[in-house]
Amino acid sequence: MPQHVECSPLQDDTRVATTHRPTAGRIVSNPDVLGGEPIVRGTRLAVRHIVLIWRECGSEHGVLAAYRQLTERDVRDALAYCTDHRAEIDRHIAANLAEE
Fold first, then answer.
1. Three-state secondary structure string covering the chain
2. Model-level pTM?
3. 52: domain CATH number?
4. The domain containing residue 36 runs over which residues?
């Protein structure tokens, strides 16, 4: 079955190509981990972490170099989750930047 690829805005003129497929198995929320923020299953890495590195590096390979424990699927699913839940992820990013 062919995968649908879409280029979606993440921030201003930044765009990311994402492959849409089910993310239920990879992106999860647990109220005991990072306050329930969406994370990659089996890690303490929030989707916002992956999005911020992607914005900085501009590529999936940059994210994989920064977070060697992630797989390509983890990164793609996190970026797809961001595309589908942009307002939520933007709120998490803004809240954490305000704390710094």
1. CCCEEEEEEEECCEEEEEEECCCCCCEECCCCCHHHCCEECCCCCEHHHHHHHHHHHCCHHHHHHHCCCCCHHHHHHHHHHHHHCHHHHHHHHHHHHHHC
2. 0.75
3. 1.10.10.10
4. 4-99
Q: Output the 3-class SS for 77-94.
A: HHHHHHHHCHHHHHHHHH
- Per-residue pLDDT of 26-72, as tens digits, reads 999 999 999 999 999 999 999 999 999 999 999 999 999 999 999 99
Rounded CA gap, 98 and 57, in Å? Answer: 22
* Residue type at 61 in one-letter notation: H
The mean per-residue pLDDT over the stretch 14-19 comes to: 46
Number of independent structural domains in the chain: 1
